[in-house]
Each structure stands twice: as C-alpha cells, then as structure tokens.
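Narrative of activities, Objective 1.

The group set out to show that a structural description can be obtained from nothing but a protein's sequence at a throughput compatible with the screening campaign. Below is one input-output pair from the validation batch, recorded exactly as produced.
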Amino acid sequence: MSQCINLMPSENMTSEAVRALLSSDMGHRYTLPLNTEIHGSLVENAYRGTRLMDEVEEVAEGLAREVFGATYANLHPLSGHVAGMAMLTTLTNAGDAIAVISSKNGGYDGYMPGYLPDILGLEVSTLPFSEETFTLRTKAACEAIRESKPALVVLGASFILFPYDLKAIRESCDEVGCYLGYDGSHVLGLIAGGRFQPDCTRFVDILVGSTHKSFFGPQGGIVLSRDHEIGRSVDGGLTWKILDNAHWNRIAALGQALHEARRWGQDYAEQTCKNARAFGKALIEEGIPVRYEDMGITQSHQVLLSEKDMEKKYGRSINDSAKLLENSNIIIDCVGRLGTNEVTRLGLKEKDMAVVAGLLSRALSGEPVGDEASTFRSQFAVEYV
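Output recorded for this entry:
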C-alpha cells in the first residue's frame, strides 16, 4: 500500500508502535483469569506467567473507557462482527425481535435475515429510512419502535453519512422497555474523536464496533457500555460461548492505538471529516457524480458515488471502475464508497484532496496516472502518532 492512494472507508493504517506490538511475543501466549472453582479446585488463572499480559489488558480497557466515555469495555472480540454477535446474545433471547437499518439502506448485512438473527433465532424488522436525506425518518422510526416493541434496536450502518437523533430514539426505546445498541464499526474513530455522534455512549446501552476502519487500530472488535450489568452479561457470554482465547498481541496493539486516540484522536477525526467534505466537493467539480450534494455531501469519513450516474457517464459498473482505478494505484471499494480515513492518517489536508480527486477523474477517463499517484503518495507518512 505504500505506492497506492487508499480510499477504502473500511481500512486504515496503524502506527509503527502498534505494528511492533502485533508482532510481539504475546501473539502466541494465553491468559484466562477465572477466579472460580474448576473441576473441584479454585483456579485464579488457567495459565501461569500471565501477570504482565493481564496488566496490559487492564491498561488498554482503561484507555477505552476514557476515550469513549464508557464505564465498561471489553476488547476480546476478534472482529466487529463478533462484537455485534456479543451484543445480540447479551440483550436478546431466541424468539425476540430486533429492529435494524435495512441493508437496502446501507445497514450491515450481518443483522439481516439469513445471518446472525437466523443463528440466534431472532425476528427482524427494519426502521423507516429516507433515501432523500440518507438517514432515519426519526418520527416514523420512533413510531415503529413503539408499535413493534422489539427487544433491541440496532443503529449504525456500513454506508453512513449522517448521524441519528439518538435522544428521540432513546425516548422511544424507554417507552417500550427495549435496549438501544449502536454498531459504530465504520465511524468508531470519529466517535472517539467527538466529531460524529459524540453523544453515543450517553444515549445507547451498548456500543460495539470494528477497531480498524475510521479508528486506526489493529483488526478486531470492541464492546463498550455505561451499564455495569450489561458489561457483566457480555463478559459471561463470551468465553467458551462466542470465543475462547483472545489475541493478546492485538489487545496490546489496540491499547497503543487507544493511547494515540486519546492524544490525537480529536484532531484526526476533525480532519477526516473536513477532508471528506472537501473531497466530495472536489469530485463534483471534476464532474464525478456524488450523492447527497444538497445535504452537504457527508458528515462522516465516507463519500458515496452515484452508481447509476457513474455507469451512465463512464459506461461501466462501479466494480469495473474500481478495477480500472486499481491499475492506476487508486483503491476504492466495489460499491461506490470512498473514505478519507487512511489518507487523513497520512497527513493529507483539504487541498490535497483536490489533487486526489483530479487523479481519480483522469484515471476514470482512461489516463495512465499510476506513476503520478505513487509519486504523490510517497510525499506522505503516518501522522497522529
């Protein structure tokens, strides 16, 4: 990736310190604090020689609580998907119903029928959503919650440009006595920096997510809450049920990333959002069809291309455009999402996003800009470290 301009909204770059911890000795060690009776004997830890790893985890969890304004944190989930599964198993029972954002509106496929709900025996309803404003229809969503009375409402999405009215949704959940969860996988770094849905942990019962998208940690998952009872239930539902051994090198590396987020997270998140808006405007100036211009383009790290208009203008699908751009050392995903998280991590500012938009436009028109893109990329190195 050192020769590519990476615009994937679901990837990021870790610091050298994070990478050092990922390759450390902890990558092939165990620890399992139990402090309970196993097979007739009191067992403090299923393994010995674990004191330093347990201390590292304690420090990392403390950093997570501080960064996200939570009172509970669990860093064991091996991915955001596993963290989402922990949320569902903790707050629902087989036969319950959940209300989610449909995958047709950018919601996460894992919460849709055929995936996690089928495994756990859950019914799924979808929340009213406005394609015109690309966010929840708040009043209608609140009415749907009051009518359907789900056990759990899950907000958050894979395509996410604008925040939700969490206060209104929270009030509706309280009326019917259901939990409110938020899958912040794509916007976790922006939440940590207080630049997108900054009140998240104040209003939701549980926040889960991936730690390697807008957040600049290693691949993995996290569970956060301000409710100690929920936290205890998550802890009790993980070991030997959803996972066995956590990856302690990853937890140590995540602790380092959380330390970086505590120090530089606000600046990074603010610049990421500024870059996304500047990028969207520059793309429009280049004649590239971007969605939601009349809504301000985006408030997150994502910019969405108009698939229909892209096909009309360039005569090819988004996926084929992505393959063409890859040959010019510009990386996007196959569904028209562009992200400014990794390029912001490299220190790019608004003026640089105009350069990237120009390169992307020329590449889409068939110009061979690969060497030029690599030369531009070589000017930058990881910042916010």
